[in-house]
Amino acid sequence: MYRKVWLSLLLVVLSACQTISKQDDSLYLDLGGKVGISKIIDIFIYEIGETEEVVHHFEDTDLDRFREKQIEHLCLLSGGPCVYTGDEMLPVHQGMNISESEFNAITNAMIRALDTAGISIAIRNRLLAIIAAMRADVIYQ
Length: 141
What we know:
CATH topology: Globin-like
Number of helices: 8
Number of domains: 1
Oligomer: single chain
Structural class: mainly alpha
Strand content: under 5%
Radius of gyration: 20 Å
Order of helices and strands: HHHHHHHH
Helix content: 55-70%
CATH class: Mainly Alpha
Number of strands: 0
Shape: globular
CATH architecture: Orthogonal Bundle
């Protein structure tokens, strides 16, 4: 009898642990997975290049590395199965003194990229809410 109760309890605990550890990947899937995110980042990089207000921040950037790390980061932020191997936001942006206006310009470049990629407003807003949370690590550093 005790063995049966113990086994039932163990199954309940294991089931709860599995539920807790399961990551919500719905945004990742809504963005089109790795392929969709890669497309969004490619468009985003183009949009940054067309944004006079911020393009100077990227003059010495290794674009291949930037692309790779942006894909990893967006994949991770959206709940995808990626590992981000880039640097933390705060140290990367220290010394850049990015203004609110420049942050908004980069955010607008992302919005244009999402629109061009055919991402709906609802999905776009879910992603922008995540990006907005990083604002303090980016501006005036």
